[in-house]
Design brief:
Ubiquitin-like (UB roll); Rossmann fold; about 600 residues; Alpha-Beta Plaits; four-stranded parallel β-sheet; alpha/beta; five-stranded mixed β-sheet; 17 strands; about 15% strand; 20 helices
Length: about 600
Amino acid sequence: MAKDSIVTIYINEKEYKVKEGQTIMQAADSHGFKIPRLCYHPKLSIEGACRVCIVEVEGMKTYAASCACPVAEGMRIHTNTKELRRARRDIVELILDNHPKDCHTCERDGNCELQRLAYAMGIRHRHFEGERKHYEKDLSSESVIRDPDKCILCGRCVRICSEVQKVNALGYAHRGFKTVVMPAFNAPFSESVCSNCGQCINVCPTASFVEKNYTQELFEKLDNPDIIKIAQIAPSVRAAIGEAFGLPPGRAMHGELAASLRKLGFDYVFDTQFSADLTIMEEASEFLERLQGNGPLPMITSCSSAWMKYVEHFHPDFLPNISTCKSPMAMMGALTKTYFPGKIKKKPEEIFSVAIMCCTAKKYEAARPELMVDGIRSVDLVVTTREIAWMIKSAGIDLVNIKPQDFDAPLGISSGAGAIFGATGGVMEAAIRTAYELYTGETLLDIELASLRGFHGIKEAEIVIDGKPIRVAVAHGLGNAQELLAIAKKDPKRYHFIEVMGCPGGCIGGGGQPYATANSIPLDEECLAKRAEALYAIDREKTIRRSHDNPDIQRLYREYLGRPLGQLSHKLLHTHYGAKLPRGIIVGGGE
């Protein structure tokens, strides 16, 4: 039978035509039958672990897991019998029996898949009582907290880490009742190969993985009148935060965020899109230097903190190819502790710098000693989109209806190129807009590079600059990055410039973005596409769409930095990275 042939099946006694090769779950979904599920995720392999999605198939002796069982011609399926409902309810009750009873104080209260499932199953009492597993929380990481007590062994975290990100930081240990998900050797997260990307948080149906929360610490700082509180907002945060307030994906809320943060207590609100423009000035200049023989090619971007930790662990041979530019967050942090204090006649020690990021790995990046300037930490604290959304709600601020405000000068004006940093391919597209003009002295007219947009794992393009073909490539997600590096290693001259973003979709799919709702799935590409379009719309609406045309960027170089790649720029805006080894790896006879 042909691959795309149609078979006839019967669901609850009614006839349906479905594609051969589909699972029962997929076939049922396509005809409006939503079978309960827990371990299933459409982007991951089939685990069949939870058994919540069982159905009755006539002729089979036992219930079939609909996520794993393919349809067949004439198959008769029942999805909602009395016996099925009882069996599913028993399965979920047994999961709940081994789960903490702290729903009302849990991070995921109201947005927990297990909680929603229990309600849908009609579970109103806990009928089973028995021994519960107990493991200590892992609080060692700057970015991600692991709470094994809330783990339901669905395996989503293990699969996304191994199949999508290909980091393999998580695995199963022990057997039966004692089974637990942990890093290798039960090492603390901080000592493992974890990239801090937070994708385990995105797909976890409960709160077994959450970001390390700094909201209470930030509230205390905002109440301190003796310090200057400065916030910076990443591009992708504005494209997603509305979802945390019940809005559909795709609404950009930069003005509303700026106004809300001032009400929250920040003295100044800057835009990370400004420092994205600054990153392009430095990175495009660095690329042109390397293109002329002053450094190894391909040059690889360094904006993604999860990607940087990944390459330090797994591909240190590519470290010479990594751009020395700091990320936009780190560049903004450096300016708020050096350039800006002089503007307001304050000392760096009087500045408290907060970055509001889509990314859990940015918490780790902010703590890196390599990013300090004169021994002072550039970014004092990082909170995610989820954290700042909660703080705004907690403070009683109406983000949805608040009157929008502009960002503060002199670090608040940005080009359209700075906005598209939040989507995969955006850094490359922004860099080409500037590199082309810096190299040729001419203006690139067609600045929207469609070949670099979208969600293909690896995208390639060729741009002719002054008669010279420049071959570039883009990867999003660490698994795709691994494949791209393999291509570059096999053919070192294939590319001149490579962009890598650690998360699927780029920053719009970061580990700190709003949780999926009851009507969506984690990392849904339709949702990611709408977030990306919000950033592209900002770009199109901007009068200035090239980083080097930003007048405040020009003023910054004229008044303070001097020139791209100059002495002060190198001190404040560039850094270095080194190989990392997880605990237990022995090199040269020692640990």
